[in-house]
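With this grant's support, we have settled on a layout for protein records. An illustrative entry appears below exactly as we store it:
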Amino acid sequence: MKKTIVLLSFSALLVSGCSSSYLQNSSNVSQIKRSYDKILVVARAKDNLSRIKFEDQVVQDFATHGITAMSSMKVIKTESFSKEVTEKDIEKLRVKLVADGFSGVIITNLVNTEQYTDVIPGNTRTAYYPTRYGRFGSYYRAYPVTYWEPDQVKVGVKYTLESCLYDITIDQKDNLQWVGRFQVKDPSSLIKFIEKYSKELTEALLAENISQ
């Protein structure tokens, strides 16, 4: 079993209350499943609070499946996320991580942010109302009344993220193991976003690439 890194690259996105699935599609590029001793979780956020919450949640979710993970806060400084990273810097980090026992890196990047417009088709509904007739209203009959509900237009912001798992112990030109694309609409809740994203990410990795 080996070690892995989870790297999340986005800034103000760590919030959402959407109920639909974030994971849109994924591919197990390596076409195999393998085990990892330990996973280093790195959330690339501008503020430490969001980063800590995300990393701790992923660590916790992996732990429920018997996978040992660790937050990256003591390994990679938040300030470094705003700096240019050279190939030399990357190789230096890779060598250090391998020496520390890690064997994988999963990088999650904010790929795109865009406005979206959803049109929710209108509908018709029929209600039946009693109609009294006859001189003394001795009985009632029901007549239908149909209501037409107009289309609803919803405008918001959609975020697209991509998570890629790499095996850092093999040739860097051919070490992509797994990739998943996520979409999040209308951010609203930090905790809900983190819990849902982390759950979908870890479950997808365990189902497709990481063996327990």
In short: The mean pLDDT is 79. The longest strand covers residues 104-120.
